[in-house]
Amino acid sequence: MFNEEKGLNEYCGIFGIYGNEKASDFVYTGLHALQHRGQQGAGIVSDMGNHLVRRRGLGLLSAVFSKYEDIAQLQGENAIGHVRYGTSGSDSIFNIQPFLFDFNGNDVALAHNGNLTNAQTLKRKLKEDGAKFESDSDSEVLIHLIKQKQNMSFIDALKKSLNEIKGGFAFLFLKKDCMIAALDPNGFRPLCIGKRTDGSYVVASETCALDAVDAEYVRDVQPGELIIFDKDGMHLDHFTTDTQLAVCSMEYIYFANQDSSIHGVSVYDARKKMGQLLAREQPADADIVIGVPNSSLAAALGYAQESKLPYEMGLVKNQYVARTFIEPTQEQRERSVRLKLSAVKSVVQGKRVVIVDDSIVRGTTSSQIVKLLRKAGAKEIHLRIASPPFKFPCFYGIDISTRSELIAANYSIEEMKKIIDVDSLGYLSIESLVKSIPIPDAKGAPNGGLTIAYFNGEYPTPLYDYEKDYLESLKKQKRKGLENGSI
Prior knowledge:
Blueprint: E1 13-18, H1 23-33, E2 41-47, E3 52-58, H2 61-64, H3 68-72, E4 78-84, E5 99-103, E6 106-116, H4 119-128, H5 139-147, H6 154-162, E7 167-175, E8 178-183, E9 192-195, E10 201-204, H7 207-212, E11 216-220, E12 225-230, E13 233-238, E14 247-248, H8 249-255, E15 261-262, E16 265-266, H9 267-281, E17 288-291, H10 297-307, E18 315-317, H11 330-340, E19 341-343, H12 345-348, E20 352-357, H13 364-375, E21 380-385, H14 407-410, H15 413-420, E22 424-427, H16 430-436, E23 450-451, H17 453-456, H18 467-484
Parallel strand pairs: 14-23, 17-20, 20-21, 21-22
Antiparallel strand pairs: 1-4, 1-10, 2-3, 2-4, 5-6, 6-7, 7-8, 8-12, 9-10, 9-11, 12-13, 15-16, 18-19
Helix pairs in contact: 4-5, 5-6, 9-10, 9-16, 11-13
């Protein structure tokens, strides 16, 4: 059910390897490279021959697997893992993946990144049919859909079930005889394949995790594909051919690591281009350019080079504090900003500063950063955002499912400037965002193969369970805007 107060989406990282005697070691290393995608829980499942063995826990990967024995006990040549960020039931061990279930007497493990937009409808029907859920995660819906089809082979049951779920999903499955990767028909969430020189195959949410285990990039998993890895190698299949690439633009703007590539586009190059185009569209009369560590640094560099202003390190990040966008509560987000960043007084004091950030979501982080810079003596602060105004929720795997959380949906640029307390505020245009992310295999696709619904409200799929309440929230927001004159 759509909830105006609480987001229900998940945003996670998945990693798997098939055919390596040190599988769990490599999964740990791969998940470490994906730790930015979730810090609330972690888990690994290993194939021990006749059965699968799982270890999972709450907290960072290093806390869950704090001893050598934690990994050493997960022997086997095949393994998958998961790092989790979720807002629903996040304090329960039962929500930590990979999940384990039985299909025709055989163990199956599942790891999921994304959000199912028809999960509540399916869950109600499954419960009516006698299904008992152990977690709050929408990922468990797919498990029960598969288990309903015990009269089929696992692959056939999986294909049919994948066609019943809607939304954004990247799945990894592990059985005793194979590992399986599957991506939703729009490819909202990234998923890629690599291969090590020893012949083992790797599947990961981002290419940075392939690099961490010395795997050579092979290809991205394409929308609607079902890829099977077994003792004979990699086999390409699909569960649907009704597909249209619409990869999440926020992966390039914020989520993915700068050293990753998604569908052939370097995240670093895309962010730098965003900064360059931002400088052309939103110039500022200033002395220096600084970026917000770490996801905005490439955009800030691009802005500085294009505007021919000095690029300086005016903000320093404490590397031991988690990312603030994915902190689950407002209080935690505000505290994390104060712990995470500090202003370099010698750099910003008495200067007219352009500060480049990747996005403004709730406005909490921006306000806190401006306070730091003011306190450090900045003469003027010109805030430039290397993405368009974030006005509409995401239902495909980002922890924003209501407009009430989005500052740009509730206030004009001029109002936001006053709230955040900056001398000027400017955003990148939607056209320049799309131009910055030239996906080579999406020629002719709407918006260049990107999902930009967060900026224009044009969703590439129906919203299913969220549709009615979302439309009602739009009407409410429009009435509010007319009353206060912001729209």
